[in-house]
């Protein structure tokens, strides 16, 4: 008997039929891991970048704030994606 390897299309088809994120607990685990990694990255930025100031839009801004705002935006996007997924799941279970 010959073993066949799964192609990328087969894996995509299986992922679609099983759902995008698997179980709820797996999705929640990935969410919390992502938030912890964002926090670790923010702490690293805070302690490794200098506190110099740059002139932005007629104001002096601490240089550390620029990447922290970007990281905060990514964290916000992650939270909103989780909320959207929860709403989608409630809609699927209700119908």
Main attributes?
two-stranded antiparallel sheet, mainly alpha, 95 residues, 8% strand
What does the model show?
With 95 residues, the protein is mostly helical. The protein has one domain (23-94). 69% of the residues lie in helices and 8% in strands. It has helices at 8-18, 24-48, 65-94, and strands at 53-56, 59-62. Strands 1-2 form a two-stranded antiparallel ribbon. The longest helix is centred in the last third of the chain and has 30 residues, at 65-94.
Quick structural summary:
The protein is mainly α and 95 residues long. The chain has three helices and two strands. It has one domain.
Number of domains: 1
How many β-strand runs? 2
Would you identify the regions where 5 or more consecutive residues have pLDDT less than 50? none
Helix content: 55-70%
| SSE pattern | HHEEH
Main structural class: mainly alpha
Inertia-based shape: elongated
Q: What is the strand arrangement across the widest sheet?
A: 1-2
Q: Calculate the terminal CA-CA distance, rounded to whole Å.
A: 43 Å
Mean pLDDT rating: 83
The main pleated sheet reads as: 2 strands, antiparallel
Strand content: 5-15%
**Computed Rg:** 21 Å
Number of helices: 3
SSE arrangement:
Blueprint: H1 8-18, H2 24-48, E1 53-56, E2 59-62, H3 65-94
Antiparallel strand pairs: 1-2
Helix pairs in contact: 2-3
């Amino acid at each position: 008997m010959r073993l066949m390897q799964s192609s990328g299309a087969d894996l995509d088809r299986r992922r679609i039929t099983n759902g995008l994120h698997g179980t709820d607990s797996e999705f929640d685990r990935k969410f919390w891991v992502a938030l912890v990694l964002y926090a670790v990255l923010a702490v690293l930025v805070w302690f490794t970048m200098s506190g110099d100031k740059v002139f932005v839009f007629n104001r002096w801004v601490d240089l550390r704030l620029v990447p922290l705002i970007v990281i905060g935006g990514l964290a916000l996007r992650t939270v909103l994606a989780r909320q959207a997924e929860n709403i989608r799941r409630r809609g699927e279970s209700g119908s």
